[in-house]
Protein: Formamidase
Amino acid sequence: MPETLIKVDLSQSPYENENIHNRWHPDIPIAAWVKPGDDFVLETYDWTGGAIKNDDSADDVRDVDLSTVHFLSGPVGVEGAEPGDLLVVDFLDIGAKPDSLWGFNGFFSKKNGGGFLTEHFPQAQKSIWDFHGMFTSSRHIPGVNFAGLIHPGLIGCLPDQAMLDTWNKREQALIDTNPERVPPLANPPAPKTAHMGRLQGAARDKAAAEGARTVPPREHGGNCDIKDLSRGSRVFFPVYVPGGGLSVGDLHFSQGDGEITFCGAIEMAGWIHMRVSLIKGGMAKYGIRNPIFKPSPITPNYKDYLIFEGISVDEGGGQHYLDVHIAYRQACLNAIEYLKKFGYSGAQAYSILGTAPVQGHISGVVDIPNACATLWLPTEIFEFDIQPQASGPVKAISGGVDMPLSPDL
Amino acid sequence: MPETLIKVDLSQSPYENENIHNRWHPDIPIAAWVKPGDDFVLETYDWTGGAIKNDDSADDVRDVDLSTVHFLSGPVGVEGAEPGDLLVVDFLDIGAKPDSLWGFNGFFSKKNGGGFLTEHFPQAQKSIWDFHGMFTSSRHIPGVNFAGLIHPGLIGCLPDQAMLDTWNKREQALIDTNPERVPPLANPPAPKTAHMGRLQGAARDKAAAEGARTVPPREHGGNCDIKDLSRGSRVFFPVYVPGGGLSVGDLHFSQGDGEITFCGAIEMAGWIHMRVSLIKGGMAKYGIRNPIFKPSPITPNYKDYLIFEGISVDEGGGQHYLDVHIAYRQACLNAIEYLKKFGYSGAQAYSILGTAPVQGHISGVVDIPNACATLWLPTEIFEFDIQPQASGPVKAISGGVDMPLSPDL
Amino acid sequence: MPETLIKVDLSQSPYENENIHNRWHPDIPIAAWVKPGDDFVLETYDWTGGAIKNDDSADDVRDVDLSTVHFLSGPVGVEGAEPGDLLVVDFLDIGAKPDSLWGFNGFFSKKNGGGFLTEHFPQAQKSIWDFHGMFTSSRHIPGVNFAGLIHPGLIGCLPDQAMLDTWNKREQALIDTNPERVPPLANPPAPKTAHMGRLQGAARDKAAAEGARTVPPREHGGNCDIKDLSRGSRVFFPVYVPGGGLSVGDLHFSQGDGEITFCGAIEMAGWIHMRVSLIKGGMAKYGIRNPIFKPSPITPNYKDYLIFEGISVDEGGGQHYLDVHIAYRQACLNAIEYLKKFGYSGAQAYSILGTAPVQGHISGVVDIPNACATLWLPTEIFEFDIQPQASGPVKAISGGVDMPLSPDL
Amino acid sequence: MPETLIKVDLSQSPYENENIHNRWHPDIPIAAWVKPGDDFVLETYDWTGGAIKNDDSADDVRDVDLSTVHFLSGPVGVEGAEPGDLLVVDFLDIGAKPDSLWGFNGFFSKKNGGGFLTEHFPQAQKSIWDFHGMFTSSRHIPGVNFAGLIHPGLIGCLPDQAMLDTWNKREQALIDTNPERVPPLANPPAPKTAHMGRLQGAARDKAAAEGARTVPPREHGGNCDIKDLSRGSRVFFPVYVPGGGLSVGDLHFSQGDGEITFCGAIEMAGWIHMRVSLIKGGMAKYGIRNPIFKPSPITPNYKDYLIFEGISVDEGGGQHYLDVHIAYRQACLNAIEYLKKFGYSGAQAYSILGTAPVQGHISGVVDIPNACATLWLPTEIFEFDIQPQASGPVKAISGGVDMPLSPDL
Structure:
């Protein structure tokens, strides 16, 4: 049995667990040390630390304090790891907490974080997904059932001070271009809700004041939300501080490319079993700036796709220059429109794109002025036939069930 | 034997072939009529109509007149097709012209079109790829050999006048924001080099004056450059004019997601064997705005990938808001840096990303302020081992061979 | 949390657990009842009920009493199931017992069961495989590491009396053709070691006297040892008795097609999470005689194979008529010879073929007089390169480690 | 353009083409020489040399003289190849003759060759398959349409005299055990219909008298009928005579594992584009006795299977000892019975199993006394849904169309 280095009690606040933290800072003390070649288990909270409940109201999604996220387990120190090394991490397995076999997906209110399609779905909504072994389905979205492509949304090593300063500086510069924007352009440090692990007192306060928020992916990896970084894959992380300081959290039972619903994938509390080793000096040897990885040999193998195209002309007909973000948004909107013909509400369709293993491809980025993006929807996840045919769509979903919605207060 | 409806003689200028056109306009006369259920073959020029030669100089890439592209075969009319229908097209097979078993890939000069990485590779370069049955390799880029994922870069139905007007209007509006930009933001009509098929005289001149350029993908599909729209796939195209008016060209032997080199994929002259049918009123039935498609059951099946991450922080450290274009550029630059460790020049590495079946995924688009994109490089296309290992990379490419470069004049 | 209907204590003899049985008979009492739509967990012993230990001696393999196998968990009754129905079983998940994260593979002595290559490996040998999350490796066989294709070797419904009688009659008829053969042609009932679940006294003795041995696959499924009947798959079982009476055991962490080592796959104690439903009258509706199934969407996805051919000419040069068994044996022997060139002992190579997800295809069965079978060896399971190349094989395995062997006494 | 070394005129008898032969013998003169590294094209007849016609009568299948098959193109000599080498052959591409875009599948009469299920289908029947680019369908079997997994049924190097003698001796020994059997156990030399390439006069007569028939697969490969030895794969052939002497024929557009219908796959005339190289002394270096190969990166990728089990109890209830041949026959019969519920005739279902890319796996070969084989039927080749469901099968095939049958005379 591999050792569980960090345990999590879901009935306890993550702030009371000293092996948890929710900011990036080089001063966060190592929670546990391992040796190269070791394998071990870390338990994790869901990214909100339990703020979202398994119920039929979206009030919790509407009201969650996003300055508290993400609650990470770690940092784990690896003996001998030095700045410039690559930390090789094998994801030997990942799972849900046995006492918490469910996850959530939702849309934040536009006033509280928003999401990819926040102009179209501006209010808080939620769907709950139950896990049945390797599979999941939702009482709020009938007609879909699929195997989980389980992965951590957030994992990476601690930054050193120079990198941390770079992050804070460039993100603040962006915020300064439009500081009143809702949702904001980026999130600055928020000391009040910072959880700096075992750090206490003045040291804690200093680190909390400059601790980087965990929301964006950055050079170290971090909140990449890459669905393919899944159980069975191998990742090569840049090391910036002695020992590396590997932290992980935000486990997902499944997610589509883009994690377009923001709140988020199918979010869950769980555990991850990893093995670590080192490539000494690997960053220079291989010219590595961001993590690289190899996909798992064992993944859900849906193959029959319906593929939707989108171009960088926005919903109002405005022309944008090679903007993949807008092109992908159009592809997603096209898919939602299609699924509505089978009886889904727009919100249900949007949630399917956020949770199921859909692919988002950058198909063309040079044919001025239009980028072209494609959204790959696996048809096999549906319990009915969604193929186009001459006789037109058959409405398989009656519409009697929908996702809870909580209007802004 | 299926009938070849349109033939192409590579020794003849495409301007002399009345079944070819290089603009989109509803007035372009139908070149040939077919019935639903028919299958037929169309031959095509390469996208430049033969301007790029199988030699070891990039002068032709530097000097090509881009206002002439793309030379398309068609339009083919389908009896009974009416606006609002979906034209279902099966790509039964696609191949190179037997007398032209090679293709080209290149980078345009920044002064003449540029490309995705034009700031890094600002001058004209070219690589020639020979076809060996299903496989291809280049005398300018040693050590790679892969199966072709053959597809048309450009295919779609004629727009009606209203859609054409929309295109011209919105693209001109973008150009007007920075009309002096090099390369330009978009391409307005260019009557001088327009080839309007069989249209002659005043009718030709009127149509040429407003005929939309073929460069960008648009609502009808067009120059989508989607590598997965390959032989064996089925596409559902919106119909805007009676008969549909299906045109096709710009065949690619292989391409990576994004077609990042712009000039372009592995470009070739060839033929395409298609079957057509109709879903009457399909646009409304299925809520279709852009084409949708189903991938082929028969594609190159490379599976072992090395995956590079990129975030929306630019080369100068500037922070951008959820910009997938920049994130993908960083992922591509990361992959190029990696490949250079094995002995490739930057240009060779860039060309590999443009030609081989690499995937580009939109991995995260909500974690403000950073988008996260991933570049999936199939390791099996290399004739040597590119996996990271503790001992560091082994230089497999000696550097004695490189891609021709033609400096700007 | 799904309910665990049957628990297993590995420190207790399976004979003491009344929810276990090791023979097939309609009189074995139902251990637990469920309803269509229910999902539930059954724990299982390894097939030998704990006779094989995690150590470095093959004495236990040599000495095991094969009349005791296989220890099955069940039977589970499904309310409403009647003879002629199809029992639909979804394998929602399968795993090893958390307190027993290892498995064994071995060859029986030719005097005690033998195996597919018993003439070549006539003595007892054993390898132990440790589980690291989804992966496994063996201290007795260096250089291989692969993901588990976890599946039950043995599962099926209780026969009715008529079917049981048919089985006993036809197998005894085969035994009678050569009753002294070692190993025997088939196994007749063996009342002494029979475990008939909760059945006691005279009823137990009667059933034990005619209870069918669990060794062969039969019409109901049973000991099929099909590696692809894995977690995530859906199986349709014929029902012969009211309630069905579903029993399961002999879990495998991984196995090659054919389970050629007989002892067996990577054998383990574990648990299986299933959901059941019914197709009323399904046997007649679909003309079903043996189970049918659909493979899992989530399986290890090794793709690069080296494929060995074999024909039905035996090791002595003798010609056999379309004998696939002999053809597959030759393909296996060819693969073993190949692997020995890289430093493996014959026994290690044999064990790899028995445990890794190798495929065995019936490639040709009509080209008289030779059948042709192919053995597909996934190259990605090796930690070194096993591809053929002009310079010949590089010996990657030093030979210092081998599988324990226990000579016959 | 690769050179076409051997051309075939389908209007000419293969006996008139001196680059064709239909027996194996070391004295057959090399038809063309190439160098290692060369690539070239060989055209081929269908295996019967044009005896079967594209019509609606099975008379030709009933009446064909099987002593004439298979007509092979070659032998091709490779400079420098010596006995003991491995001849590495890349299948760069394979296709149908452009003037012959169709193929045939059939069952021989039991009196003239028979087949795998000859007891069930004892009379001559035929289906014609038309090729539509990469796809095929049959006017005799509605409702199926699939992509071709194109491959040569027969390819290998010339035997030396010692190997030839071994073949003739061991096959005659088998024949001698039951010389009157219909169909025969094996085929002895048949000088009258032998075509020995360019060999003439007494030399021809001597070679014809002992030339091995091409029907069975043997050590050199030969008539393996392995569906996965397809375009894009790489094969390593043992070399027995100076120059190797590579011959090929019997091209198949598609075939199921086992080629169970014998006549045969979807048989076609065509061409194959190959590249050759050598591994000197490779047979000893790698311990090679039979060819080995690597599968293609580009194959039809059907993934959703319905899997049928079969055990080695025959149709009369007789018990056989680990007989995979019988087990696979039962799996095939089970699949045929299933398909009949959707409206197919037994003959149509049998033909689908012989032509479509079905897999046949040797699932269990140690669980005495029953072997277990599985037949994997890809559901995606059907134009209607063949999944089992609670409501039972829907008859999609009306039965108005069937395969021509020609009773024995």
In short: The helical segments of chain C are 59-63, 161-175, 201-210, 282-286, 324-340, 346-355.
